[in-house]
């Protein structure tokens, strides 16, 4: 169970990051604009975020193992479409389908894993799970750089096809089927949650190209928020709610979801620009850029296991506050030293601090959410947690691109460095907001 769910998570998280060092090659090869590059990242997060809660409900209804395997299969098929894409439009469409497949993997992986371990062992299991997922952080940019420089960028997607096929097979033969406590589907809730999430994420992604005050942006944002408000109202009186609102009475559950929103907003936005800064700001090749990010990511393979073992003793709050505080400090450090003539040693230390902070926070945030609910509600809790993470990622990339566009451009190394400085400061603010949310998590609390 732990191996299958962790490797599936690795594959899903990897594809959120593997394109980072391929963005420059995609921009050159397909003639993509900065907006289309943003869509290459956010198209994945858009469908991922919109379908997460639907996926969790489907797993409760039709079987978590079955839905998990279907998600892995769809992810592999969508990777094939990305690999053979003749233009940026087809690539973006493939990324949308990839995100849809990922949405049916992540919450079900967490639910299957959470149900397989008792509450006292769950933080340790989540630490291992986070460590394996964390391998994607150093491996994603490095693998992307090596493949782009050694072969070509489509091969970053080809690799998913055989792995996905093997995982689907193992899932169907090695994992026992399980269902949620409530087999009924909350169809109005599914429609409202999906439509509201789509409106919000669409508005965020369009903000930089259409203008944040335009009707094309404000319309979807306002409509999405109104529909999400209707979703909340419906959940209060639905006979079989897809997200029981009493869960949010738990400070651990509510604060943990806020933490993961800001955590992934800051982290995904940062890696989106750090890989490009090494190439467009400092002139590195794709492989050198991937190697340059290795110190940032290697911490995510070790730190989560240590944090997972200690969370049960000291609680989640210290790891979240300290972790996101370290990441915020590192982003300010990078903003202060960024420039087209700096050497790599100048940025190596803040990269390690950033990776350490991100890695400390993730298993603690997962633990806060998944240990605050009864086992029968793990599927719904995992769906909410994963949805907040992906919404945060889309929000973070959009806000950092806005900061970059206001201060810099791709016109020269100096212009890119100026934009990167602004983006790094925005990332630091998002991390500080996550640390503030984490400070609200109590040390102990009775489960719902």
UniProtKB/TrEMBL annotation:
<protein>
    <submittedName>
        <fullName>MFS transporter multidrug efflux transporter</fullName>
    </submittedName>
</protein>
<dbReference type="GO" id="GO:0022857">
    <property type="term" value="F:transmembrane transporter activity"/>
</dbReference>
<dbReference type="InterPro" id="IPR004638">
    <property type="entry name" value="EmrB-like"/>
</dbReference>
<keyword id="KW-1003">Cell membrane</keyword>
<feature type="transmembrane region" description="Helical">
    <location>
        <begin position="319"/>
        <end position="338"/>
    </location>
</feature>
<dbReference type="Pfam" id="PF07690">
    <property type="entry name" value="MFS_1"/>
</dbReference>
<dbReference type="InterPro" id="IPR020846">
    <property type="entry name" value="MFS_dom"/>
</dbReference>
<feature type="transmembrane region" description="Helical">
    <location>
        <begin position="344"/>
        <end position="370"/>
    </location>
</feature>
<dbReference type="InterPro" id="IPR011701">
    <property type="entry name" value="MFS"/>
</dbReference>
<feature type="transmembrane region" description="Helical">
    <location>
        <begin position="99"/>
        <end position="118"/>
    </location>
</feature>
<feature type="transmembrane region" description="Helical">
    <location>
        <begin position="125"/>
        <end position="143"/>
    </location>
</feature>
<feature type="transmembrane region" description="Helical">
    <location>
        <begin position="155"/>
        <end position="173"/>
    </location>
</feature>
<feature type="transmembrane region" description="Helical">
    <location>
        <begin position="41"/>
        <end position="60"/>
    </location>
</feature>
<feature type="transmembrane region" description="Helical">
    <location>
        <begin position="67"/>
        <end position="93"/>
    </location>
</feature>
<feature type="transmembrane region" description="Helical">
    <location>
        <begin position="418"/>
        <end position="441"/>
    </location>
</feature>
<feature type="transmembrane region" description="Helical">
    <location>
        <begin position="185"/>
        <end position="205"/>
    </location>
</feature>
<keyword id="KW-0472">Membrane</keyword>
<feature type="transmembrane region" description="Helical">
    <location>
        <begin position="391"/>
        <end position="412"/>
    </location>
</feature>
<dbReference type="InterPro" id="IPR036259">
    <property type="entry name" value="MFS_trans_sf"/>
</dbReference>
<feature type="transmembrane region" description="Helical">
    <location>
        <begin position="284"/>
        <end position="307"/>
    </location>
</feature>
<dbReference type="GO" id="GO:0005886">
    <property type="term" value="C:plasma membrane"/>
</dbReference>
<keyword id="KW-1133">Transmembrane helix</keyword>
<feature type="transmembrane region" description="Helical">
    <location>
        <begin position="255"/>
        <end position="278"/>
    </location>
</feature>
<keyword id="KW-0812">Transmembrane</keyword>
<feature type="domain" description="Major facilitator superfamily (MFS) profile">
    <location>
        <begin position="1"/>
        <end position="446"/>
    </location>
</feature>
<keyword id="KW-0813">Transport</keyword>
<feature type="transmembrane region" description="Helical">
    <location>
        <begin position="211"/>
        <end position="234"/>
    </location>
</feature>
């Amino acid at each position: 169970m732990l191996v299958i769910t962790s490797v599936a998570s690795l594959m899903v998280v990897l594809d959120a990051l593997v394109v980072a060092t391929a963005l420059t090659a995609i921009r050159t090869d397909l003639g993509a604009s900065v907006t289309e590059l943003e869509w290459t990242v956010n198209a994945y997060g858009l469908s991922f975020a919109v379908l997460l809660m639907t996926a969790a409900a489907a797993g409760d209804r039709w079987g978590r193992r079955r839905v998990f395997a279907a998600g892995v299969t769809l992810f592999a098929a969508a990777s094939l479409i990305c690999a053979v894409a003749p233009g940026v439009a087809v690539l973006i469409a493939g990324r949308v389908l990839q995100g849809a497949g990922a949405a049916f993997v992540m919450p079900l992986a967490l639910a299957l894993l959470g149900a397989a371990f008792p509450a006292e062992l769950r933080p340790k299991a989540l630490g291992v799970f986070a460590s394996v997922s964390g391998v994607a952080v150093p491996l994603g940019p490095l693998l992307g750089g090596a493949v782009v420089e050694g072969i070509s960028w489509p091969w970053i997607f080809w690799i998913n096809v055989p792995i996905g096929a093997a995982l689907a097979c193992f899932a169907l033969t090695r994992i026992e089927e399980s269902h949620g406590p409530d087999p009924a589907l909350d169809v109005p809730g599914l429609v409202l949650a999906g439509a509201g999430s789509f409106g919000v994420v669409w508005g965020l992604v369009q903000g930089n190209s259409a203008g944040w005050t335009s009707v094309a942006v404000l319309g979807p944002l306002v409509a999405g928020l109104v529909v999400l408000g209707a979703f909340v109202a419906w959940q209060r009186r639905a006979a079989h709610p897809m997200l029981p609102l009493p869960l949010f009475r738990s400070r651990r559950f509510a604060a943990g979801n806020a933490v993961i929103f800001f955590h992934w907003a800051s982290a995904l936005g940062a890696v989106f620009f750090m890989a490009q800064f090494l190439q467009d700001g400092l002139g590195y090749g794709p492989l050198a850029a991937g190697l340059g990010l290795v110190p940032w990511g290697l911490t995510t393979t070790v730190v989560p296991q240590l944090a997972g073992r200690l969370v049960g003793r000291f609680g989640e709050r210290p790891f979240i506050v300290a972790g996101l505080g370290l990441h915020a400090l590192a982003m300010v450090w990078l903003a202060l030293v960024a420039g087209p003539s700096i050497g790599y040693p100048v940025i190596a230390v803040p990269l390690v601090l950033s990776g350490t902070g991100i890695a400390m926070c993730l298993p603690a945030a997962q633990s806060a959410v998944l240990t605050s609910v009864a086992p029968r509600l793990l599927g719904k809790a995992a769906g909410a947690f994963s949805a907040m993470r992906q919404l945060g990622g889309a929000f973070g990339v959009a806000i950092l691109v806005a900061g970059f566009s206001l201060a810099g451009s791709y016109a020269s190394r100096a212009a890119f460095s100026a934009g990167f400085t602004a983006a790094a400061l925005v990332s630091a603010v998002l991390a500080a907001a996550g640390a503030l949310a984490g400070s609200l998590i109590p040390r102990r609390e009775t489960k719902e």
